[in-house]
Amino acid sequence: MKSIDHTEDDHSTVVKYTKRGLVPEITTVHKFNDFQEFISKDEQLCIVKFYASWCKSCYKFGIKYKKLAMKLGDKSDKTGQIQEQGQVRFAEVEYSKNASLCKKLGIKKLPYIIIYKASVGKIAEFSCGPRRFEDKLANRVFRYIDINDDELQFEQKMEAGTSLVDDVLSQLNHAGKKTPVNQDDLEKQQYKSEEIFENS
User: Fold this and answer.
1) Is residue 162 part of a domain?
2) Does 62 share its domain with 113?
């Protein structure tokens, strides 16, 4: 897999975040196999950003993403050779060019983030605009790199529980506006939520 597609649009942004001629190593993912290879390559924390080239929020988010990658990720030279190892690996997927991959992964909002670690699996996934970058992504990543796999698995279960609660609230809000909530579905979601926390 090649890293960082240097286009005229994003080259000026990348150059801003150089360190002794080095740039952040951000892997460009195109296929599901590339995605699987990226997240299972080693035991480093992996962050994957989903964005669209036409999206203004994605562009602003991307600038902050490159800064974070420069701080925590691998750094490469002009030839693409990694010169400094980081603590976290970064990737990105452009939605328009990879719509089938994004649909397969359930990406519906942009910008979107998925965080993985090979030994733990998917730890978290969420949409995140540029205004929430620090508290939703950066602070979380700094916390995750300082904790062990057992603690990451706990975070994973907490994230899953939060996601279920958000789904239930979304259904309740939707129900208040249009149609009644299916009681069986709510009970199933409550059971799943309880099961997650009992097993943690």
Assistant:
1) yes
2) yes
Residue 14 lies in a domain: yes
Give the Cα separation of 100 and 72 in Å (integer). Answer: 30
Pull the structure tokens for residue 183. Answer: 């009681």
Distance CA 178, CA 30 (A): 39
Q: Please tell me the total count of domains within the chain.
A: 2
Tens of pLDDT along 84-142?
Answer: 999 999 999 999 999 999 999 999 999 999 999 999 999 999 999 999 999 999 999 99
pTM of the model: 0.72
Cα atoms in the Cβ-side hemisphere of radius 13 Å centred on 140? 22
Of 61, 76, 197, residue with least CA distance to 137: 61
DSSP strand pairing (88-94 vs 45-51): parallel
